[in-house]
Amino acid sequence: MIRRRSRLTLLLLLLTCAFLLFNLSTLPRPLPPSPPPPSFDPGRIFIASNHWNSESILRSHWSDAVTRLIVRLGVGNVYFSLYESGSWDDTKGALRELDERLEKLGVERRVILEETTHADEISRTPGVGEEGWIVTPMGRKELRRIPFLAKARNRVLEPLLELQAEGGRNGSFDRLLFLNDVIFTVRPLLPNSRGIAGCKLICGRDDRSKTH
User: Fold this and answer.
1) Tens of pLDDT along 17-61?
2) What does each C-alpha distance from 179 to 17, 25, 51, 58, 175 come to in angstroms?
3) Cβ neighbours of 179 (radius 10 Å)
4) Between β-strands 175-178 and 45-51, what pairing exists: parallel, antiparallel or unpaired?
5) Contact at 8 Å (CB) between 106 and 67?
6) Taking a C-beta distance cutoff of 8 angstroms, is the pair 57, 183 a contact?
7) 162 within 8 A of 155, measured Cβ to Cβ
8) How many alpha carbons lie under 13 Å from residue 84 in its C-beta half-sphere?
């Protein structure tokens, strides 16, 4: 009887430990600590980002890196705009998690997640006179890829016009930073870094030795 009770006690202890470990592993990662104000004046920065099937890089690097960048620049100096459409992995889930994180930090932003895919676009019948389509030598009307990508880029830039119409500080930006699904580090993208000093339009892959 004593041996049976000891086994039962041990089993309950093991189950309790397993339950605690599971709950600790599922806790959300803490937000970055509130940093001191930047030691430089970053100005107003508009961060624009397009995503498609980028769940892996979002979860492994990108979401953490862009959060650190925004915190380093100063939350009040940044507007974040993101557009995603038609991903078939869990990119939308990863972006919703990022959106919640930015909400807690108080970041001004617009995050659009849409279901329309490139396959949906090329299979539909274009409207009369609609731009972005071409008649192939085989006589078929097909969607040109560059106009499709340009449309996605324009969607992520829409808040620029909307904020400009509102006027005030929110309608004026000193720099436009494009960050798509590429791995980047924070330091080279800071306005006082050698790589982008004096730049107004910046891409996450800009060469540090060139001015764009």
Assistant:
1) 655 555 544 445 555 555 555 556 778 999 999 999 999 999 999
2) 42, 30, 9, 12, 13
3) 22
4) parallel
5) no
6) yes
7) no
8) 25
**Alpha-carbon span 49 to 61, nearest angstrom:** 15
| 9: amino acid identity, one letter | T
Q: Residue 26: which region, alpha, beta or left (left: phi > 0; alpha: psi -120 to 50)?
A: alpha
Which residue type occupies 78? V
Give residue-wise pLDDT tens across range 142-196: 766 777 788 888 999 999 989 888 876 667 888 899 998 888 888 767 766 555 5
pTM of the model: 0.69
The Cα–Cα gap between 171 and 177 comes to 16
Token pair of 166 as six digits: 């509102």
Strand partners, 108: 79
